[in-house]
Amino acid sequence: MARGPKKHLKRLNAPKKWMLDKLSGKFAPRPSAGPHKLRESMPLIIVIRNKLKYALTYGETKQVTMSRAIKVDGRVRTDIGFPTGFQDVVSIDKTGEYFRMLFDVKGRFLVHRIKKDEAAYKLCSVKSLSTAAKGVPVLVTHDGRTIRYPDPLVKVHDTIKLDIDTGKILDFIRFEPGNLAYITGGQNCGRIGIITHKEKHPGSFDIVHVKDSVGHSFATRLSNVFPIGKGKQAWISLPRGKGVRLSIAEERDRKLAAKAKEM
Length: 263
Known about the structure:
five-stranded antiparallel sheet; 33% strand; 3 helices; mainly beta
């Protein structure tokens, strides 16, 4: 019988989207409690040590974070287990580098390099709307933020553009057909496309149909769809490939063509 919170994570049980190898030890870093769920986040140590290669060991990563060099969403984070999730902005002022946490087309976490002006804001999905004490309307986002007095036009599943310094809503994107969306879960995680239509299934999961820029159509659950732009214009810079998943044959042809160019 478990007595208290779990403090360890076996390497083989770690989320596959972290891309950890199996032979580098028995355990994996377990994310601390924070704004994102364990399996929807990546601890800061993996970002610094495994992805950005700014440290080689656990101890070196600890020294980097304790020097107060790493900020997540504009706040200094010294906990190497702090969970970073989709859309979080990781900034390193000493090197002048800024990164946004995204997914690649195979559903793996991607530390995407961005410019300083883009690091000033992030997109947040609206998870719920409610009324707090004294009738104050509040909005809860996918990264655990509670924002008071939001725009009355904002609804659940919409996306807000949030100023990281002030915590104020700058603009919002409606969840509606014709808008650009990022898929954040399921078999299509990491793909980007235009929302075509939504199917309602009372008592089950609502299904959203999406078409990517090369005309491939796919369907996923409503909870996996994250609007990122009005029309075809994205509000964030997109990773290489623009969220288009290639078939195995297309990937092979692209690799062979690249190899032929090198020769």
